[in-house]
């Protein structure tokens, strides 16, 4: 029952609240990343990790941080009885300690090789780079016609042992299978 309420709330938020922010996002990248941070929270909320995942979701930012303090607002929030801890990671070797990783545009040229090393790990990979989903990122966001949209690479999500809510899949502009 509680999860259904969150599904409804998420769909309502995406449908009615975000379009107001979209037109401003083009003029101010900080607002764009504020909206993307809200999307990331919902992506985490609508993802199911294996039972072996601990009580903390380490949300890691890898590469240049365009979020500023916006992503820090997710710190210590909880989803499904797990607390979110925001971490900025500079060392590639630390990425396997993350349950969710946002890959910055600044590392897009390295993305394929990084994802190969994280293959089959229970990690939700996120980005906002062109063709990132085709390269193997689980969820990729784009700014199109002043709107934040996202695509999901369901093959990679399933290979990593994660499960994404069907409600989230319905909201994606494209689902790679």
Summed up:
This protein is an alpha/beta fold. The chain is built from 6 helices and 10 strands, in the order ααβββββαβαββαβαβ.
Q: How would you describe this protein?
A:
The chain has 177 residues and is of the alpha/beta class. It has helices at 2-27, 29-45, 111-117, 132-135, 154-159, 166-171; strands at residues 47-48, 56-62, 78-79, 82-89, 100-103, 124-127, 139-144, 147-153, 163-164, 174-176. It has an eight-stranded mixed β-sheet. Strands 1-9 form a two-stranded antiparallel sheet. Helix 1 runs antiparallel to helix 2 (29-45).
| Separation of the first and last Cα atoms | 29 Å
Computed over alpha carbons, the radius of gyration is 15 Å
Q: What letter string, H or E per element, gives the SSE order? A: HHEEEEEHEHEEHEHE
Q: What portion of residues belong to β-strands?
A: 25-35%
Instruction: Pick out the low-confidence regions.
Output: 4-9, 15-27
How many helices does DSSP assign? 6
Order of strands in the sheet with the most strands?
3-4-2-5-6-7-8-10
Helix content: 25-40%
Sheet with most strands: 8 strands, mixed
Quick one: overall form?
A: globular
Structural class: alpha/beta
Mean pLDDT: 87
List how many beta strands DSSP finds: 10
């Amino acid at each position: 029952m509680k999860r259904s309420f969150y599904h409804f709330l998420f769909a309502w938020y995406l449908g009615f609240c975000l379009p107001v922010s979209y037109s401003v996002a083009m003029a101010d990248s900080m607002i764009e990343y504020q909206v993307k941070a809200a999307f990331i929270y919902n992506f985490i909320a609508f993802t199911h990790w294996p039972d072996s995942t601990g009580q903390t979701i380490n949300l890691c930012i890898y590469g240049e941080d365009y979020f500023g303090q916006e992503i820090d607002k997710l710190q210590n929030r909880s989803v499904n009885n797990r607390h979110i801890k925001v971490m900025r990671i500079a060392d590639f070797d630390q990425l396997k300690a993350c349950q969710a990783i946002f890959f910055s545009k600044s590392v897009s040229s390295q993305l394929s090789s990084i994802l190969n090393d994280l293959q089959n790990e229970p990690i939700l990979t996120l980005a906002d780079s062109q063709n990132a989903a085709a390269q193997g990122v689980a969820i990729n966001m784009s700014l199109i016609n002043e709107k934040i949209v996202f695509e999901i690479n369901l093959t990679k999500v399933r290979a990593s042992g994660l499960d994404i809510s069907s409600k989230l899949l319905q909201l994606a502009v494209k689902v790679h299978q």
